[in-house]
Amino acid sequence: MPSPHHRLPFSRRGFLTATAALGLATLPTPAAARPRPFGRYGSPAARLTPTTLYVDQGGRGDFTTVQAAVTATGGSGWTLVIAPGTYRETVAVDASRTEMTWLGAGTDARDVVIVYDNAAGTPKPDGSGTYGTTGSATTTVKADGFTARHLTFANDWLRADHPGVSGTQAVAIKVQGDRSAFHHCRFLGHQDTLYADSMALGVFARQYFSHCYVEGDVDFVFGRATAVYENCHFRTLIRTDLASAPYGFVFAPSTAGANPRGYLVTRSRVSSEAPDGYYKLARPWVPSSDTTARPSLVVRDTRLGPGIDAVAPYATMSDSFPWQNQRFAEYRNSGPGAAITVPANRPQLTAEQAASATRAAYLGNWEPWKEAC
User: Which pLDDT score is estimated for 15?
Assistant: First the structure.
């Protein structure tokens, strides 16, 4: 619907040059203008360690694609240094490649973009069906101990370009490993942007997102991981295909019932390019594969902008699993989207409960915030 925030959809090929709207880098500059594509991280001629590999589209690294570099690794402890550029590919890190680190060699996460455009409803090239939500992911990480710094993970599939496709989930990254850390990264998409999950129902994978930016519209941070989002910025997008609220939901955790902790959002902010009140903060996802799930979300010390519906910030995805029966709570939030107008709709932690809702309590003996960024 027309509003001061309204803008027409643009080609998702133009997505990569729309830096003002989405914060992505323009295409890399010519080689002559970038004599040191890997910056302070060395080069193939001055390799930091024997287990460091260099990726550069211009051919000045060991590989020109991220997936080729991942495939070349074996075992544990590899580092990929990725030169500035837009890498249009899908990438998968299997469970055997543990303790892997990806470093964006630019000065900002916008400089290195890993992007593709599959959706859940996209037909597979071999005719065996569609990709499904998991298969739509641009990047998939199954290994434990994965760390990424200064990178953008994106899925630039657009509903407007595919009006006949009903499976509109389009994942930028699916993370399943334990001890997965993302520092100063960006996650761009629309529906199901950041899939923070685990390898199996009984596995409580811990994940940490620090100083990250995530944007989307429907359930764009979702899954069953034990995940801490600290000093992060979540931004909800305008939708031109809907005429009324709600446009979508920021969080959709699917925490296993046996897991005492799900998502913790702390010292962060939620902003919006949509009209005021057009987004819900969260709704619980109880998947058909785990009807015993009890989604858990704590949002604390976070600024909620006017895009969040302050009167009814939570919604129910399935009538069988109302949000009131799940584990949703807030503490000391601020901003117009945090105003408590109907107390029953905004469960609050007590001070005693809040003392246990900390990154240390969620992540245990793993302290990723101490890692240099």
Answer: 46
Distance CA 215, CA 183 (A): 16
Q: Tally the C-alpha atoms within 13 A of residue 21's C-alpha that lie toward its C-beta.
A: 18
pLDDT band at 373 (very low <50, low <70, confident <90, very high): low
Interval 251-270: pLDDT, tens: 999 999 999 999 999 999 99
pTM: 0.92
Residues 6 or more apart whose Cβ sits within 8 Å of residue 328: 282, 284, 295, 296, 297, 298, 314, 347
Given a contact cutoff of 8 angstroms between Cβ atoms, the answer to whether 137 and 90 are in contact is yes
DSSP string covering 217-266: SEEEEEES-EEEEES-EEEEPP-SS-SSS--EEEEEE---TT-S--EEEE
Phi, psi of 214 (to 5 degrees): -130, 130
State the catalytic residues: 192, 219
CA distance 296 to 226: 9
Q: Which of 318, 311, 322 is nearest to 345 (CA)?
A: 311
Place of tokens 């837009």: 86
